[in-house]
Design a protein that fits this description.
Layout: E1 2-8, E2 11-18, E3 29-32, H1 49-52, E4 57-60, H2 81-95, E5 101-106, H3 108-117, E6 124-130, H4 136-147, H5 152-164, H6 170-183, H7 191-202, H8 205-210, E7 238-243, H9 250-259, E8 264-268, H10 275-278, H11 280-292
Helix pairs in contact: 2-3, 5-6
Length: 295
């Protein structure tokens, strides 16, 4: 394991490599976290592929969160999809793997992975899109449908604070947690997920700017993002993974799968938005089988 920084045009990005990039073997996997602004820690179990499959794995914190450079004085229009596309491309070049690599993106990371694939980088061998939407408006619509299934008192708490503009209150956060325990992670939150949440709480700038206070109240710069019309131009093999109880519901995922030529979709029973934590053995087996077919 090695840790370092990637210096690029907008600042610096922290990353960690599990395995040896110079050892040959399977093409390395770049693991892209969600949020935006939720650090990589909760995705550490995916890097187990370095040990179990001999596949070098790269974890990184996107600029503005975790161990990467925080830019608290940056204007709101600094935090764009294009910014994070450039960061991912810069990291791949910095690591010297641009000729041969895979990308796995989870949630927002899958959204970014699709954006990356549409730039047609010549060395991208395949893409895994885990628990991601292709349309934020569809995502919000389904999240709010799931919200109607929450206990009435929880729904009232969410609505009251959203109307009052007090979504930073502890009561609102506790109400959101009821949603998370149903649709984000249905097991006791593992240490890595807790660390990611803790880092988000320390600096929510990117999340609040691009997303908003919660998954079902998206008022940030991503609110109109919809990549669906462009997905027919994806030219690499794509595996799509989601969970039975995922906030990325089948209604969210189906248009994405239908739009990507030849995409495969696997729905993991019993899991929600974090199947890599809830069903790690099944998740990793699916991913490695797919990656090894496209090395």
């Amino acid at each position: 394991m090695s840790e370092a920084r990637c210096e690029w045009e907008e600042g610096w990005t922290w990353y960690r490599v599990e395995g040896d990039l110079d050892a040959g073997g399977p093409a390395p996997l770049v693991i892209v976290h969600g949020g935006p602004g939720v650090a990589h820690d909760y995705l550490e179990p995916v890097a187990e592929l370095a040990r179990t499959a001999g596949r070098c794995c790269v974890l990184y914190d996107q600029i503005g969160c975790g161990r990467s450079q925080h830019l608290s004085d940056a204007a709101a229009n600094f935090w764009t999809v294009a910014l994070f596309r450039r960061e991912l491309a810069a990291l791949v070049e910095h690591l010297g793997i641009a000729a041969r690599y895979h990308v796995l993106g989870q949630s927002w990371g899958g959204m970014l992975g699709m954006e990356h694939a549409l730039e047609h980088p010549p060395g991208l061998r395949s893409l895994v899109v885990a628990n991601s939407p292709a349309s934020i408006q569809l995502w919000v619509s389904e999240a709010n449908r799931l919200r109607t299934l929450l206990p009435p008192e929880v729904q009232r708490t969410l609505q009251r604070h959203e109307q009052a503009g007090t979504t930073d209150s502890q009561e609102y956060e506790q109400a959101v947690m009821v949603f998370y325990e149903r649709h984000l992670c249905r097991i006791p939150f593992p240490d890595g997920l807790q660390r990611s949440f803790a880092q988000l709480a320390e600096d929510p700038t990117v999340y609040h700017t691009m997303n908003g206070p919660s998954e079902f109240h998206v008022i940030g710069t991503l609110k109109d993002w919809d990549i669906t019309p462009r997905l027919s131009d994806v030219r690499v093999p794509v595996l799509v993974i989601s969970g039975e109880h995922d906030e990325a519901t089948p209604a969210v995922v189906r248009p994405l799968v239908d739009a990507i030529p030849g995409a495969r979709w696997h729905l993991i029973e019993g899991a929600s938005h974090c199947p890599h934590l809830e069903e790690p053995a099944r998740f990793l087996a699916l991913v490695e089988t797919f990656l090894s077919a496209h090395d």
